[in-house]
Each structure stands twice: as C-alpha cells, then as structure tokens.
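Q: Joint fold for the lines below.
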Amino acid sequence: MKAPPVSADAPAPATSRVYMPEMGRGWWLRQRHYFLYMAREFTAVPMALWLLWFLVEIQRASNGPKGYYPHSSIGFVVFSVIVLGFALYHSYTFLSLAGVIIHIKGVPSRLIVLSQFALWLGASVVIAAVLIGFAR
Amino acid sequence: MAEKRITIRATRFDPDKDTAPRLQSYDIPFSDESMVVLDALNHIKAHVDGSLSYRWSCRMGICGSCGMMVNGTPKLTCNAFLRDYWPRSITVEPLQNFPIVRDLVIDMESFMLKLKSIKPWIIRKQDYPLGAGEHRQTMEQIDEFRQFSECINCMLCYAACPVYGLNNEFLGPAATALARRYNLDSRDQGIKERLPVIANAEGIWECSFVGECSVVCPKGVDPAKAIQQTKLDTTMRFVLPYGNREE
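A: Joint structure:
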C-alpha cells in the first residue's frame, strides 16, 4: 500500500528511536484461537498431497481397467483416513464461516450456515451414490 | 484486615537508554473492586513512578486511546477490571505489532496513514448546495453500515492480527471495516476511489481470516466480516457482467 500524499502542513516525521518488536516463530502457540487457525490452514497440505496421489492413480488407470490395480497398502489406507479427517475439519470450519462471508438481506447468518451444511450433505450423498453405482 | 494488593508488571523502554523493553513490577493497593488496569497505571504514575508513559483519555471506552496488551491479550485498559485477574499479577505491555516509542506508548503513524488512504468520508460525484436539502436515508439503509461505524480506532484488532504482525504493509482490520462502512452508505459514491487500496494484494487479499480481530474488538464491530464480505463483493464486481458499472 502506498502512503497518501503528505500535505504541506503535516508534522515532520518523528526522528527519535523506536523499538521494532518482531513476532517469534511460536506466535501460533500462544493462543488457542491462533493454534486452531494454523490447524485449519495446515489441513490443506495433506489434502493437497492426497490429491496429487489421486492424480497419479487416475493417470495409472488411463489405460482402462485391465492391468490397473489400485494402491491398497495399509499405509495408504491409514493416510487416506487421516486425510479424510483433515478434509472434514477443513470443510466444517469453512462452512461454519459462510455465515460471516455471505450477506443476504433479511436472511439470518445461521440459516445461511445451515443451508451450506445441507448442500454439503446433499452433494456427498449424490457423489457417494454415483461412485457406488459405477462400482457395481 | 490487611490491605488487598496487586502486582502490576509494566513494560519500560527509554529510547535514549535501553536497547530493548523490560518489565518492571509495581506492588500497589487494590482498594476498590471497580478498579481497572488504567486506574492501576494512574496510581503508579501519581504515587510510585511518575516517569511511566502511556496513552489514555476518556476512561469510558469511547476514545480508544488506552489499548494495551493485558496478560497477552489486546484490551482497553479502562475496561479491564483488576478483580478479573487478582490475586494473579497483571502484565501490561504496549500493543503488539507496533513500534514502541516509550514504555507503553506505540507509534501509530502507520495506522493513521492506512486510515487516511481509504478516504473515510462521504464521496459524492457531484456536490449539491446545502440549500438543496439533506441526503435522506431509511433505517434499513443505516442498518447496512451501522456496526462498522462503531469503530473507535483503538487498534486492538491490529495487535490481535498475526497477518499484520508478519506484514505491516497489510491494510488491516479497522481500516477495511471503515472502508466498508462508507462503501455501504447509500449517500456515498466513492467505492471506485477506494478499490485500488482495499482490493490490492496488501488489502483484503492479504487477510487469511484468522478472525481474532473481531474477537478482541471492544465495540462489537466485526472487521473480519467486513474483510470477507468485501472479498466477495469485489469478486462479484469483477466476475459479473456490468459488475464495474458506474453507480
């Protein structure tokens, strides 16, 4: 951001020495709220890793079902379950904040949040039905 | 009965002598349940150490001058009661994320420049003479922006914002809330003049929605809401056809 032009009658900038404090690396451990914020942001990292893996799996399946064996090691299953937990937490925090972000005249924010969760549930059911349908 | 006492640990920093701030303890009488941290500081200045420097003015949560870190949380010291901390000691420090001028006094120059940059006044494309009458508003139109006009510029939200702590070029919560206050005002026509400041990389898009600014606000303003809604509005202006039309 650029400072606005200084008018001619503005006071001269102070020349005395000031102490410039710096934020320590552990600032996010100081308060529960900061920690939860960092946890929310961190969840995107394992989700991104999982999605990269998913892209690899799609590439591997691009030659058709013959010769494709999905990766099913215990380690990958455990990683997927952990990432699912992160994805659910991220979605919960994101949708909970929808009432703050979306502003519709006359509509209470609680109703906006509820509608977002209902849409999430609806979309999950549809996707699950499609996937189960294809698997049969 | 022994007199009730409380320990106040206050930051001391003399720019002519000290290289870094330090904490100094003061043991003072806690004589009245209605005493606030500001009263304790005033007691220290009047009876113990007259060199202690800090800002204050109204003592009733209106002027926004006495914001400091009280046990690590940004608070108006005129609204932080000793009874909520006693018998523990209270650590009073200058608002974090700002340069320290002396003791508990911070340099607010950067904030004042940010405030000015969003043009916090009603902008009209064409001014009418006073005789032409008032710019009338309905209650609904006032309710659109009322909460954002409650800000007292106490800067607690900046002290609570880690994004501002890491990048003090960030426009920050209070200035964005005030910009939204004017952008939502039915009498104002200045949104296009404010957009270059609020919608750039160091404006709303720097915010990652920590949300602590709204938690610490002593006036119930919700700057996090102002920032997120401005993100949505500016995106819609960009995406929708005729979004940038003249208003």
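Q: Anything notable?
A: The longest helix of chain A spans residues 109-135. The interface with chain B takes residues 1-4, 13-14, 16-21, 23, 27-28, 30-31, 33-34, 37, 41, 97, 100-103 of chain A (CB under 8 Å).
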